[in-house]
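Supplementary Methods, section 5.1.

A reviewer requested that the exact input to the structure prediction be made available. We therefore reproduce it here, unchanged from the version used in the analyses.
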Amino acid sequence: MERLQKYIANSGYTSRRKAEDLIKLGKVFVNGNLITELGYKVSGNDIVTIDGVTISKNNDKVYYVLNKPREVICSVTDDKGRKTVTSLIDTDKRIYPVGRLDYDTTGLIILTNDGEFANLLMHPKNKIFKTYIAKIDGILNEDDYKKLRKGLLIDNRKLSIDHFKVKEIDKNKNTSLVEVTIHEGRNHIIRKLFEHLGYDVKKLTRISIGNINLGNLKSGEYRLLSNNELKELKSYLNK
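The structure derived from this sequence is encoded token-by-token as follows.
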């Protein structure tokens, strides 16, 4: 027996958080009965349906790494007709992105049909490191360095910077290329970080999540996670 939201996530239908939302919205039925209780438990013999679609546990898990281009949204569908990350991957599996990148942000995004894995990867308690390269309009000064070392108060919550370094300075164009590593997943957090310091982010790319690196993937290209990458990441998540 397992909780209904976990069963739905393991089916590959959606993440556990989205499954909880579906249950609360009255979209989920078990053996023909409407279930709105998050703690409800089901077994493999139960028939679970969502919006009339019967789901079952998916033991054929897949894990993709995509280099997301600009002007692509991190969603399965979009009512505005914009291109989605799932449309870039050729698969017959029902995959969805783990977390998100902004519309104008490029770089590494993981997509999977493994709901339990997705939930662990996104959970704040696991403190997964994420590294970004930001091109900013301006050149950091010594006061900025001190603030970055101490951490900053963004939206009334402290943001700790795990690592940062200036990779390149263009004095003629008055721009800097800065590498930043954090372990939070708040919306627009890197852009807000530099805005707080008085800099405009011209370009932003995520280059790694935990032990998973973008490598040589070109914009729009994707690959499967290797067994070693997946094993190492899962071992960290299950600590």
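The chain has a mean pLDDT of 91. These observations are discussed further in the main text.
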